[in-house]
Design brief:
Layout: H1 2-7, H2 10-32, E1 36-37, E2 47-48, H3 55-79, H4 81-87, H5 99-124, H6 131-145, H7 153-184, H8 193-219, H9 221-226, H10 232-236, H11 238-264, H12 267-290, H13 294-323
Antiparallel strand pairs: 1-2
Helix pairs in contact: 2-3, 2-7, 2-13, 3-5, 3-6, 5-6, 6-7, 7-8, 8-11, 8-13, 11-12, 12-13
Length: about 325
């Protein structure tokens, strides 16, 4: 069981679940709750907008996302046996879990994820959006089989798919709101603002994931160059990769403060992003440039993961600010 949980990266799956739950209940729900709407069959008084995407459908959406993500982790380890032996000195697939069993797990996870994705899409009235789950499943397979060996393509794909996690929560809730209130409300509010809020988290997820993927490529330089992978550090060199990593972090910091200044401008957000995002990001830059071995780069990678988690947890600050009318 321990090998199985390690193979599917249960901690990362827990973060996926946490991200989706927080997007729904800590961001979308309090944001739409600030909007008043008059129902056709109501008393004529405004009532706050509420979530319309059913809890059952949301649970299935989370399950579909988790299954496909788990399948991606399994197939990644399946194709990375040789390089992982060099970079990590140990592997799960081929030792504790047979290759045939790993491929079977990958197929089961993907089939379950795609079927659930289509079912949720059908329940939502947008059956064809289920194709998205099929595309993501395919991208994760080809990422492990080919794309991650190509210059920057694999890094960008993973960053996009990570950013997609909060966005799909926003999309399905947005569509449910329009379907419900177009029938029951006298006038339908513009719910597009949901994507501004969720999109901010998605953009942060994209940039920080891309940064972390490059750091991981620097960390895995020896194994990648031994097996002819065309990663950024292999093609451009480690120093150039460190510079690009630092530039991405500086861009992230700049965007954080720009968003705060133009859209939020509250002291609680300023304190949070400075203490829990900016300072750790600066530490990552220092660690990356001072690193001389794989262990130090691994520390930078772990710090980036903490920053990504802190970014997700900012949603709780958003909930508090909206609940206490501080924004």
């Amino acid at each position: 069981m321990k090998s199985f949980l390690t193979l599917i990266r249960w901690q990362n799956l827990a973060i996926v679940i946490l991200t989706m739950v927080l997007m729904r209940y800590a961001v979308i729900e309090p944001v739409i709750g600030k909007i008043g709407i008059i129902l056709q069959q109501g008393s004529g008084n405004e009532i706050p907008v509420t979530l319309q995407f059913s809890l059952f459908s949301f649970i299935l959406l989370v399950a579909a996302t988790v299954f496909i993500t788990a399948g991606g982790y399994v197939i990644n380890d399946y194709f990375d046996i040789k390089t992982d032996l060099i970079n990590k000195g140990k592997v799960i697939v081929g030792t504790r879990i047979e290759r045939r069993q790993a491929m079977m797990l990958h197929n089961i996870f993907n089939l379950a994820g795609v079927l659930l994705g289509f079912y949720v899409s059908w329940r939502s009235g947008y059956l064809m959006t289920g194709i998205m789950f099929l595309i993501v499943s395919g991208l994760l397979y080809f990422y492990s089989a080919s794309y991650k060996r190509q210059f920057l393509i694999g890094n960008i794909i993973i960053a996009i798919l990570t950013a997609l996690v909060p966005m799909i929560v926003g999309f399905y809730e947005w569509s449910a709101l329009y379907r419900s209130y177009s029938v029951t409300a006298i006038r339908i509010p513009d719910f597009d603002f949901i994507f501004y809020w969720v999109g901010g988290f998605a953009l942060f997820a994209f940039i920080t994931t891309l940064t972390r993927e490059i750091i991981k490529d620097i960390e895995d330089y020896e194994g990648d160059i031994a097996y002819g992978r065309n990663t950024l550090p292999v093609i451009a060199g480690i120093i150039t990769s460190k510079v690009i990593t630092s530039v991405l972090i500086v861009i992230t910091i700049a965007l954080l403060y720009l968003v705060w200044y133009f859209f939020l401008f509250d002291k609680y957000t300023l304190i949070y992003i400075s203490a829990f995002l900016v300072i750790p990001l600066i530490i990552v830059i220092v660690t990356v440039f001072r690193s001389t071995d794989r262990k130090q780069m691994h520390s930078a990678s772990r710090m980036m993961k903490i920053v990504m988690l802190a970014g997700i947890l900012y949603s709780l600050v958003v909930e508090g600010l909206l609940s206490w009318n501080l924004l």
